[in-house]
Amino acid sequence: KRFFKTILARFKLLFQTNHNNSAANKFELRGKGISLIGIGVDPEYNGFGIGQNLISAFEKKATQLGMSYMRLSVYDNNLRAIRLYERLGWSRLTNDGKTLYYYKNISGNL
């Protein structure tokens, strides 16, 4: 528990905001968006809910900033992360071969 609190205390969101940005495959995300640049969990600590808590912190910050949607990307061989994102309600937007792109609308901010 102490380790987990330390990780969250040191966690910093890395993100960029996009306004009226359109994505590939003619799918347009409307409104203000925010992109998660990257997160990672040491494999030794998989299964402790750290990844889920990092994504939840990102979603909370995006909501506080008044964003309409969030985006992230993941390598297609990172099955653990893909399962996490899909379980948390993220939808696949497109892919470019080895990278999958996901988005999630933020209710109330559309």
Structure description:
This protein is an alpha+beta fold and 110 residues long. The protein is built from three helices and five strands. The chain has helices at residues 2-10, 50-64, 79-87; strands spanning 15-19, 32-36, 69-75, 91-95, 99-105. The protein has a five-stranded mixed β-sheet with strand order 1-2-3-5-4, covered by helices on one side. The longest helix is centred in the middle third of the chain and has 15 residues, at 50-64. The model is unreliable at 9-26 (pLDDT under 50).
Largest sheet, strands/sense/barrel: 5 strands, mixed
The unreliable regions are 9-26
Tally the helices: what do you get? 3
Instruction: Write down how many β-strands occur, each being a DSSP E stretch of 2 or more residues.
Output: 5
Tell me the fraction of residues in β-strands, as a range.
25-35%
Structural class of the helices, strands and pairings? alpha+beta
Strand arrangement in the largest pleated sheet? 1-2-3-5-4
Calculate the mean pLDDT score and round it.
79
Helix content: 25-40%
User: What would you report as the Rg, rounded to the nearest angstrom?
Assistant: 14 Å
Order of helices and strands: HEEHEHEE
Shape: globular
Report how far the terminal alpha carbons are from each other: 36 Å
